Amino acid sequence: MQDLIRQWDGESVVVRYDRPSDAWIFIVIHDRTLGMAMGGCRLKVYPTPNDALRDALRLAEGMTLKWAAIDFPFGGGKAVLAPSAPVEGKVREGLLLRFGELVESLGGTYGTGVDLGTTPADMNIIGRTTSRVFGRTPEHGGTGDPGPWTALGVFSGMKAACARAFGTRDLAGRSVLVQGVGGVGGPLARRLHEAGARVLVTDALPDRAARAAAQLGAQVVAPEEAYDTECDVFAPCAIGGVLNRRSIARLCCRIVAGSGNNQLEEAADAERLHERGILYVPDFVINAGGAIAHGALEVLGWARNQVEARVLRIGETVGEILEDAARQGESPLREAERRAQRVLRAAREKRTEPAAAALASR
Ligand code: PHE
Known about the structure:
This protein has 14 helices and 12 strands. The radius of gyration is 20 Å and the shape is globular. It has helices at residues 2-7, 49-69, 89-105, 120-126, 147-166, 185-194, 206-216, 245-250, 268-275, 283-286, 289-299, 304-312, 314-328, 332-360; strands at 12-18, 23-31, 37-38, 41-43, 75-83, 110-111, 175-179, 198-202, 219-220, 233-236, 255-256, 279-280.
């Protein structure tokens, strides 16, 4: 655990063990150059606490890049709650309440929200012990589930990728395989269906896949066949690390464009996709819709139609990144990271400017 944290390049890590739920809590602050660290809270059973920590470290870094890529005034952070077995009822509630206390004790360093395994109802509970929480249900003063907003952004980014790969943004007749039809994949599949795409779905939970397929007239693909299934667009909307040396060799698609955080097992996988001629839309750019909605609605006070327009602009950003990457013959990931780093660098320079000027005038 010590090595994992030392080798990582972020600011700080808060580790807590919660005995009543036998859960590890990691709150990870990656970079606050742009503002308060803000990122969702993941609740999941991991093989070991180190796996949970590793996930949290990478997710927090992804949030730094995400906020920078959309130029929003927030920093990168994330929380992972890792019980040894699924938690329900009172045990779950207790864990969430104590997590809220921990968030509150950080005094505005970190704000939390919905992520894989948590819901707006969970945020209501967390909101009893901290005010630094986003995505509560509307009755509790929140903006609810970020999932549909994330889906809207992915939809617009996918169209931009199709424009690049096929010469048209039109999704009618395109085959799209959605991996994971949960909080984001579900609404995304619906939008794709409405746009006339041929939707294929796969999910680790067979019931969920069957339900989505029945609603949309979609084809169900078995989880183990997902990477070998021919399609125009593969949309990973579930867990991370699905794009790796093994799966990339199998993929039969032109585009990878989905909502999952940390889709690549390692950065080199972006190059592997590039070499195979598969257009990969960097996750932290295309999945920023939820972050935009939370930040804009709950902190910056934007109106819903402004937020919608901003989320739809993800498509423009994706288009620019893909174009710049193609011009330089590089993978889109490199280009997206460069963009984000530019925003971070400009913010750091602006911050040191007044101090430097004061020194110079002495
Ligand atoms: N968890 C989502 C994401 O990774 C949405 C979210 C963003 C939640 C920001 C809280 C804060 O983008």
